[in-house]
Design brief:
Length: 176
Amino acid sequence: MVQHATGPSRIGAGRLLAIGVLMSETEEAERRAVEVREAERRAVRATQAAAEAAAREAAVASADAQREAEWQGAQWEAREADRAAVRAELNPDQPLPDALPRPVLPVVAAGPAVPAVPVVLVAPVVPVLQPVVVPWQAPIMHAVAAGAFSPGVGDALLRGLGTLDQAITADRLASA
């Protein structure tokens, strides 16, 4: 069909078809690699957002605990003042007894928020994605797509470099 539609010989049509298939596979692998990187970035951003939300919640809880401690301290002082006033009114000629010891209030550190409630940290949710391997032929396919090489030159390079086996790895072919 390629031979009939484009006019080259049967061998030329086969080369065009092989180059087209490799170009399609290269584009798909590169597209998947970009999708994997984007998914990883989204997972990192989601983890960072969750950590920031937990820190905000901890700061709010710490501020609430500080306000509660201050309020309870003010309540204690008001009760002690009322108690002393009533005692002084009922027994004006007797000295006031020692005040009850002030309750120990939780100390909330100034500066970075110290959580008053336990914060449960959640491990980041990273999607399990299959690693995407871009074919070693990608530079040749890009050159053919850009017009730097003709399909015939691309096919000649691919045939000349050979195929993968135990001695010839994808890294060696890509560097060649």
